[in-house]
């Protein structure tokens, strides 16, 4: 059983050490990611939306009552938002529009949060761009 240890920054916001460690240990590569394995159904997931371009499924470590990940089915070099090129405009828009559709499907009429982690300091642990859709509770500001 894995344990998560909360640490506190100078702003006293809890950060999960294991998430930070995973982000700093992760490196971009062309090797298949866990998301590629979910797309190919090698790893099971609870899919909530799927079309020819996007797959949305429930996060295995939810940070709210509703926490869904949205990923492009084809990575096309888009390992993170900082790697986006003009050719990625359509899929980036599609991910955000799909997040809106899924939020409505999940009953998040009162609001939700969209998060895209990028790079080690952004706590990105999987280098296949993904959008976190989090809702079902009151969010706080500032995040992180």
From TrEMBL:
<feature type="active site" description="Tele-AMP-histidine intermediate">
    <location>
        <position position="130"/>
    </location>
</feature>
<dbReference type="InterPro" id="IPR019808">
    <property type="entry name" value="Histidine_triad_CS"/>
</dbReference>
<dbReference type="InterPro" id="IPR011146">
    <property type="entry name" value="HIT-like"/>
</dbReference>
<dbReference type="InterPro" id="IPR001310">
    <property type="entry name" value="Histidine_triad_HIT"/>
</dbReference>
<dbReference type="Pfam" id="PF01230">
    <property type="entry name" value="HIT"/>
</dbReference>
<dbReference type="InterPro" id="IPR036265">
    <property type="entry name" value="HIT-like_sf"/>
</dbReference>
<protein>
    <submittedName>
        <fullName>14 kDa zinc-binding protein</fullName>
    </submittedName>
</protein>
<feature type="domain" description="HIT">
    <location>
        <begin position="34"/>
        <end position="144"/>
    </location>
</feature>
<feature type="short sequence motif" description="Histidine triad motif">
    <location>
        <begin position="128"/>
        <end position="132"/>
    </location>
</feature>
<dbReference type="GO" id="GO:0047627">
    <property type="term" value="F:adenylylsulfatase activity"/>
</dbReference>
């Amino acid at each position: 059983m894995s344990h998560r240890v909360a640490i506190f920054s100078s702003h006293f916001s809890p950060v999960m050490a294991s998430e930070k460690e995973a982000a700093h240990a992760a490196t971009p590569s062309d090797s298949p990611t866990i998301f590629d394995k979910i797309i190919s159904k090698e790893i099971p997931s609870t899919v909530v939306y799927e079309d020819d371009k996007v797959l949305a499924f429930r996060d295995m470590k939810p940070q709210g009552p509703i926490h869904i990940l949205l990923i492009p089915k084809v990575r096309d070099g888009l390992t993170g938002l900082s790697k986006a090129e003009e050719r990625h405009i359509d899929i980036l828009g599609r991910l955000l529009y799909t997040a809106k559709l899924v939020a409505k499907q999940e009953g998040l009429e009162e609001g939700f949060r969209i998060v895209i982690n990028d790079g080690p300091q952004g706590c990105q642990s999987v280098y296949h761009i993904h959008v976190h859709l989090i809702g079902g509770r009151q969010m706080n500001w500032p995040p992180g």
